[in-house]
Design a protein that fits this description.
Chain A has 371 residues and is of the alpha+beta class. Chain A contains 11 helices and 10 strands. By secondary structure, chain B is of the alpha+beta class. In chain B, 46% of the residues lie in helices and 15% in strands. Classes of the chains: A alpha+beta (371), B alpha+beta (391).
Chain lengths: 371, 391
Amino acid sequence: MDLTLSSEQLEMQQTVRDLFAEKSAPDVVRAMEEDKIGYDAELWSALADVGVLGLLIPDELGGLGFGWEEAVLVFEEAGRVLVPGPLFETAVLAASLLENSPDEIQRKWLPRIASGDATFGIGWKEPGRGPSTKGIGSTLAQAESGLTVSGSKVGVSYANSVDRVVVLARSEQHDERIDLVLIDPKADGVTLNRVETLGSTPQFMMHMKDVPVSERLSLEEDGWQQWQTALLRSRVALGAWSIGVAARALEMATDYAREREQFGRPIGGFQGVAHPLATVAKDVTSTRLLVQQSAWAIDSGRPYESLAAMVGMRAPDIGRTATKVGHQTLGGIGFTNDLDMQLYYRRAKEKQLQWQDHRGLSDVIVDTVIG
Amino acid sequence: MDFEFSPDELAFREEAAKFIAKKVAKPGVLSLGADGTRYIDTPARREFMKDLADAGYLGVSWDQEYGGRGLPPVYDYLLNEELALQGAPSTGKGVGIIGRSIITLGTAEQKAYFLPKILNADIEWAIGYTEPDSGSDLASMKLRAVKEDGGWRINGQKRFTTSAHFADWYFLAARTGTGERKHDGITLFLLRMDAPGIEINGLTCIDGERTNEVFLDDVFVPDDQVLGEVGKGFYYMSAALDYERHVLFPWGYLKRMYDVFIEWARTATIDGEPVYNDPDTRAAIAKLSIDLELARLLSISVVATDDPEQANVGSAMNKIAASEFYQEQADTALDLMGAGSWLQRDSEGAVGEGLFERLYRSGVLQSVGAGTNEIQRNIIARRGLKLPNPV
């Protein structure tokens, strides 16, 4: 057993931390809340330069060919600074989906993701519908010019700037089958309505009316299975992001609790303040290990499904709880926008909600246990 | 990173598992199901400890010069995990905190006298720390030892000395100093439990187990039964408790009770419907599975690190996670098991052999004993988060 990071991993962690410190400082994150695109092109090309965008992409397709252990390191750092941009959607989820797509599609898109030349959005959830297959109401149709898709997707992040959106849609001919298709969000038939969100990140209600499909990712196998597999793995990186958010919130709160005095002593010296922070520290420590273990299981070819589902259920919750405890520790001043806790609090909850699927994840765990 | 134990470690565990399985099959060893075998004195338990000793399973991580196998601490950990998983008694405080303290602090004579007896499972120990007015604030203990010619005279009272009624020896902390900082005036003694002046009064606990009050009235202890330096006892105790906190909360117990619950969930029906189709049961299985895995990870993280400070904070985290899981598992199982869940073992209509009825009772001790969970959170806050010592 060895629960420590290798020297290469430590080096990578430091590189990414330095990069984020320079390009994703809190004032940048705040400024991006008002920005039309929501992230900086310079940051994106820097991420490409250090290999973060091609982390999970094989060498022969322009990536670094690293594993999930490295991905979770990067995503914890990304969570710590709330790095703006479609990093998860592009470098993790789309890359994972593409990895199981037809060769020519892989060869077309994966090198462009790695080089920073292509970004992706994800069109999964629909207004008034749930996260399971039943929730996919968008439909495909075969027109003379080719395949088209129609329907609406809620909260598609960065849809106004990405090159492609992955859309989950139901094939009209075989209405049980869910397909994964790519569309160009600038194509005719797409209407993007910017929505204001809890996390103040760029998101869009995306309406599609006979939008031409540029590629179909799911050719032979069932697209829903392909989606579930990629999403489940990707949740491990998403979980690392939540741990980063939680760890930073805990740091901000404990820093404050050491300095702020009331009743003649630092408030961190009162059990009523210290104990919730200790509980968060325990939960961050254990859940980080769960994230790392899941990554290790994927990389080493062990069964990972139940572990990844555990991450998917618990890690976002730790992000939410840590920022809530963080706010309680900061008291009145934390309630103002002058401090960063409110950013973490809003983003942690938003991320939890965007990707939430408690029933589906719980089924993965229960099916593993009950058999 | 590697979350798996090494092939040698796994082979050791497998061999131990087979051995334990053979021995726990004897009647009486497993009388209490998933937990509670630690403080019980029965002929079957004593024989089981003898079996462990004869096979060389006591003190596997002790140095060879003291009769151990000289293996790294992870082997003791794996052994105790396997014992807990199979519902067998743990290797106990003799080879644990007491033996370790004697190895570190004892004189040559003390080592020669006690260590072989411990390894042979020839003696039973009781630990006397807590007093009626001194629980979490251990350093405030009042039981006093006064120096006299050739030894010490002890007067006072201990409470919650769990094994006092069958122990041979007493590992006792007493106040020997006067006036200075309360942490600095405490000394450790090793005395015979049947020394003149000792009186033991049993207290029956919520789960039917026995603990004790021990009254010491002019008990004489010779000088050669002082352990370590006079006045340093509190620091010795703290160091030993750091170790005990981890050892006393093996994950295997939790896994064992969870397995009983899962077996129920897999096979039981309510109103003819398999319970695993019930949404509340499914949600509970998922939550318990996550909490169990998180407790396991904290448990192995303590063994995996060679940084004592990290091990310390980690074992405080482990203690909280393990005790809270124990309580949650009992509580949730009772909630879901339906009519008869609250019935005791062997009662007509008892569900799951009454295990969770019993664990619901014994769970109360989990968050209190071996340092309350409040004290554990203080440790995390102070040592892990560098906050001021919280009051």
